[in-house]
Amino acid sequence: MRTGRNNLVLRSELDPALTVHRPSIPVQEALKHAAGLREDLKDAYRGKRYLLKTYGCQMNEHDSEMIAGLLEEMGYAATTDETAADLILFNTCAVRENAENKVFGEIGRVKPLKQLNPQLLLGVCGCMPQEAAVQERVRSTYPWVDVVFGTHNIHRMPELIEQASNAFETVMEVWEQSTETFDELPKARTDQTRAWVNIQYGCNKFCTYCIVPYTRGRERSRTMESIVSEVEELAARGFREVTLLGQNVNDYGLDLGTQFSFLLRAVGRVAGIERVRFTTSNPWNFTDDLIEAIAETKSVCHHIHLPVQSGSNAVLKRMNRGYTREYYLDLVRKIRERIPDVALTTDLIVGFPGETEQDFQETLALVSDVAFDNAYTFSYSARAGTPAAGFKDAVSEDEKKQRLARLMAVQDRFTLLASQRMVGKTVRVLVEGVSRTNGHVLAARTDTNKLVLIEGPLRWIGQTLDVRIVSANTWTLRGECVEKEREARTGS
Ligand code: SAH
Ligand code: SF4
Ligand code: F3S
Q: Are residues 115 and 160 in the same domain?
């Protein structure tokens, strides 16, 4: 099992916790954007280079594509070399304390680079600046940071960078809330086959442990027309897969008088898009019609990430998750009945305040009952300003560590079993690129989101192929391309 998304331990290429924005792909999108880059800032930074490091969830990764798009409109070019960078920007995550500490460590580590390049600008954006305590800490302890902006101010970045180039003090602009969205900003996408598409912003659920409603503001849905037109444009550019992004995608459209199931069907009709994924589905509001839409829409992948967080009703209640263990198990049963080959993955938190050994046992039992294909497991981290930060009966760090290890041991067995079940099967995969861990093989993915490594030419990247699974370990499958064998037999 992998630990948290923001934890570098045991990370696999399935889910990069930290992405360094890479140069090279000429995919600057020509989307018009409402805010528009001020004429005099266009290309004003030609010859300068930026290094953008992204932490956190897919939403942040996608924000980074917009940030990169704007920087490139300003004339900046991407680099992965810190010593060559004129701007180092950290797009941060606030969901757990260790993610935040890592960023503060990085801000300290890169400080000496300013002596090598006095023009170097250091920036912090994303979810961390949305916390007042982080703003204060930057001012008091990290004054060498030049520019700070939040999740609602991305479109303001060019002007803030311009101000920071001429300022002695940290330029800081963090809006708490915004009705604006950035759908129209240019996006320097890091991939040419798969694209993220925002469908919903913010979160209204207020789970008691979670900082996201405070860093991302209230839930807002993007209109179906705007989403479908972006997806059509992506299809026209050759993209084959889209992932619809939101914190509770099954609440999509409730503010617009529509529903997520309608959106899935509409996106599913876009010609050229072979795969539609979505994340994240809170188990709340997972309607029968949504199950139906997933089952009947051919391009919608049979993978549902359905975070359960805990198997104990007492803990779920204190987490304010709004469902019970029984509701969750029933939902899983309904989904599997209608979509028998579905892959289910989840998120789990151990050591929530007041979690007893018995509560934890209930989580272990639920994990065994459901037999998830995979799970992200997290040790509870108190976030200032959230209700749970004030809850009594904290679980000790030592106990949390032990529970995390016990949970991982149980889930690992199910992850391996789910992989092993694939051996001998022929499955359709989309080839995503060269493997990040082994440059000699290609990384492809099944509809159920399993990573398959195959040998083959680079021209396969972006194609869908039939592969036979020949072996499996916990995180990866090895496959052989069936079409390749056919080519060899016919000599073509
Ligand atoms: N909107 C998604 C979750 C987004 S945050 C949902 O509700 O399903 C991603 C995951 O981080 C959560 O599912 C949760 O498991 C974990 N997480 C959030 N806050 C946390 C905290 N304070 N401590 C530990 N893990 C946390
Ligand atoms: Fe956080 Fe809960 Fe919203 Fe998910 S649904 S982002 S866990 S508050
Ligand atoms: Fe982290 Fe912000 Fe995403 S807190 S999980 S980057 S919404």
A: yes
